[in-house]
Amino acid sequence: MSAIEKVKKSCGFVQITSARVSLLCGAMLGVIGCASSPRQTPDPAPAAPQTASAQGNVARSDSAIVMPPLSQFTRMGTGLMYYDVSIGTGLPAVDLREVELHYVGYLESGQIFDNSRTRGQPIKFVLGQGRVIPGWEQGVRGMRPGGQRILVIPPALAYGAAGKPPVIPSNATLIFTLTLISVR
Predict the structure, then answer these.
(1) Does pLDDT of 172 surpass 80?
(2) In the chain, fewer beta carbons within 10 Å around the N or the C end?
């Protein structure tokens, strides 16, 4: 049994078929460390039918997290998908405001490729200035300090066909867990 199969078996697994994304619950959601009700928002664009191999699986890590069913992710017309684990309070992130956040980035395989938490250094950038990938520009907008969000970013809103060798392969769908620290 491969390492990925062991993780799937031990922590629960949800597969987002149309986005070609495998969310490994324990690896991803354990980083967030809380389980709040999601904000219920209407789906702004019709999406292709999607299936999930399991719904509401409990992730096992340092804290138990319930992985939301795919129907609770908000799908944007650009293909970006997001899920608010918690909303946060204060001013929302909008263009031309500096945001500070912690993040963990995953490949479809569940492999972590970047983690601001292990470095102990959150990222800061001015939203709407094109300093981060388009998926982040779209996915961070509207978050509030203390809010936690999962982003599923299609290749066109990430690094596309070029990828970012040797870490991010060509046409990779990226998954991020974000925690917004501040908006200035």
Answers:
(1) yes
(2) N
Asked if 135 and 103 count as a contact pair (C-beta separation under 8 A), the reply is no
Q: 57 with 26: CB under 8 angstroms? A: no
Q: How far is CA 51 from the centre of its chain?
A: 18
**What does DSSP say about strands 98-106 and 112-115: parallel, antiparallel, or unpaired?**
antiparallel
| 166 touches 113 (CB < 8 A) | no
Residue 182 has φ and ψ, to the nearest 5°, of -155, 160
Q: Would you say residue 94 has pLDDT above 90?
A: yes
User: pLDDT digit string (tens) for 136-160?
Assistant: 999 999 999 999 999 999 999 999 9
Catalytically active residues are 103, 113-114, 133, 159, 176
Structural contact between residues 73 and 139, judged by C-beta atoms closer than 8 angstroms: no
How far from each other are the two terminal CA atoms of the chain, in whole angstroms? 48
Question: What is the set of domains in the chain, with CATH numbers?
Answer: 3-183 (3.10.50.40)
CA distances 170 to 39, 44, 84, 156, 163, Å, are 33, 28, 28, 11, 4
